[in-house]
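To whoever picks this up:

The parser on our side crashed when reading a file containing two proteins. I've narrowed it down to the boundary between the first structure block and the second sequence. Both blocks are reproduced below exactly, byte for byte. First block:
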Amino acid sequence: MRKREFKNVEWSLIILAIILSIIGLVALFSATQQTEHDDFNKQVIWLIVSIMCMIFVMMVDYEFLVKISPFLYGGSILLLIAVFFTTPINGATSWFPIGAFSLQPGEFSKISVILFLAYAITKIQEKGKNEINRITKLLIILAIVGVPILLIIKQPDYGTATAFIVAIALILIAAGIDKKYIIITSLLVIIAIPLLYNFILPEHAKKRIDIFINPESDPRGSGYNIIQSKLAIGAGGLTGMGLLKGNQTQLGFLYPKTTDFIFAVIGEEMGFVVAATVIVLYVFLIIKCLYIAKTAKDEAGSLIATGITGIFLFHVIENVGMVMGILPITGVPLPFISYGGSSLITNFLCIGILINISSKRQKTIFVK
């Protein structure tokens, strides 16, 4: 990275990611004291690996990543197929076990799919900005994202699949898709929701929706986790009950407290002040992502940054929303904070790509 490029870099992205990761480590340290901090120790290792991966991606021109994206996409599809031959964990075939660790190809595929979408859309638009609105071209784009989505749903992992849908929606809007498609899609979604619920969704997915609407209907069963989560957040008050002192967290009522419900641990033990600060940090992170998308030097960079923004936006809203009981539980991790190596590495790779895109901006974009 040259000296001029260093001046354009949005270093605040790295600062925000590191702060969020540190808060996550503090929460994990408290949440894992009964297990001798096993997940905390692993997360420290994952954080070191993630930062190294981020630095590597920062040094590789994102235009090169776009060029090789068809191969990255093909590799990710093969991994999403291969994972079906692994032993299910909690009813899902989403991970490759590697010793004491595991890797989730669905997380890494987010990056390859976004890169390949940017590649495909820019190729399509070489013949004209409006080419994307041709039905044949639009179907090609939807097929690109449709294949990994179907494979991820098959695992099943509805949260990651929804993250893909949000990302592709934002990318298409940024690419200039005609408003009529947005209106038609919105109407189809409204019509499809009751049909999906009644005829397509498996029973466990329906149960999650039912519990979201009325968790008290099964307080000792499916509604247990969300009830305990809301109790934990409410008990935290303004400044929290203190690290290692949360009732729901330390007495084993909150589960899984290191991944899905880590925000509840923060709310209970660190209180509203820290929990609100976390949300503010995410707001700044997403605003910075959008700014990079707006100021990118080319269409590909803008689309990639927009897709990454969609991934972060969905994960934050869904995780915080489900922990507070205002959205259904989907098992979506909180970026940089939840335990999980695949998620953490993917998040830092996204930051590295965003840093790379921001570094390539022309200096004149700051002159108005």
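<<boundary where parser fails>>
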Amino acid sequence: MVPEQDMSQQQLALRQLLLRAASVVVAVVVTGKSLDRVLAQEALAGRAAVQDMVYACLRDYARLCAVRDAVLVRPVQDDVIACLLLVALQQLTVHGERAYMVVNEATSAAASLRPWARGLTNAVLRNVLRQGLLTHVWQDDEACWNYSQWWIDAVRTSYPDDWSLVLAAGNQHPPLTLRVNLRQTGIAEYLAALDTAEIGATYLGDEAIRLWHPLPVQQLPGFAAGDVSVQDAGAQRAAHWLDVRDGQRVLDACCAPGGKTAHVLERADVSMTAVDRDANRLQRVKDNLTRLHLLAHCVTGDAGKPADWWDGMPYDRILADVPCSASGVVRRHPDVKWLRRPSDIAGFARQQAAILDALWPLLALGGKLLYVTCSVFPQENQQQIDSFLMRHDNAGQQPRVVAEEQLLPCDDYDGFFYALLEKI
């Protein structure tokens, strides 16, 4: 039996977490702020629990809205209370054993913000408890798939055979995949280390190992020593596509947070220049390289303005992991589904074209440029490459295997697009 004092502390902690999570959801869906940036401002104590609540709420956002609105007599005009209801409803779906604690603490949380909201919050949550999840209200596409209608339509048009699988994958919990640093250890050796630590894992090929269950990186054997990094298996394909050789000059033009930069350096002895416009994110690249015992020339700069940082010497290989909609990695960034607008895709496409055009003169004759996005939208992917090839008669696309170029999110990896261009 839980002591009364401990129960009281648990209740107070839950109330505070609900309030913090609701505030984050408001910042994302109402004011349009990036989830990563908002969470970074959260107090360290309890941040992981807040993040779990918010991620779960945003994954199911449209369904939760449908349930909430179905039991309301009239819409809630107060954004904080409206989002608090969503967070609490999501908690009811995963914590049935403490459902009444969730109701009580959500009601108290609402009352601490808006006294008038006590009765409304209590009534909504208890109504849902009595009626169940009200799955019958998930009739429209948005509630069924948990995406905006324009997104659903775009994916359905682009992938008429696989659209439902793509949407469903974006609502799953992402896999936690490792990249083994072959400069320091081998695949068999690291799998044995995981087995010794009683950490279940599956080898996916090349340097990729998927863990059966997520866990903090500090618990991974050899992580601090640089034996392994966390990187999606789909993202790990970049270093293989780039086809680097010892002695080459390589540019990673949009490098942060540095996973692809490090992977290239793990595979070959190259002269690496890593560029990113965000100095704070570039510091993360430096920190990762230090942990992995790797060296690169890290430069703060805009990939679209190489005149500000380029030394004038051509590169043998260029990795252009360009800004994009992130539509292929929404299970890792659930806020993206609700922040993006249809016009954003055209905006990203213009930015991508400008970066490609700016980087192309930096590539040596016979050199290769790998264009990468974590998007599933064709406007950012092959359509972008087709337009580039029309503008540049000294560019050719390497032999294409569509299934390998456009990776659709699945159990083993996220959604990515790859196109390898050669200067001829």
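After patching the parser it read the second block fine. The chain has a mean pLDDT of 94. The chain has three domains: 4-145, 176-231, 238-423.
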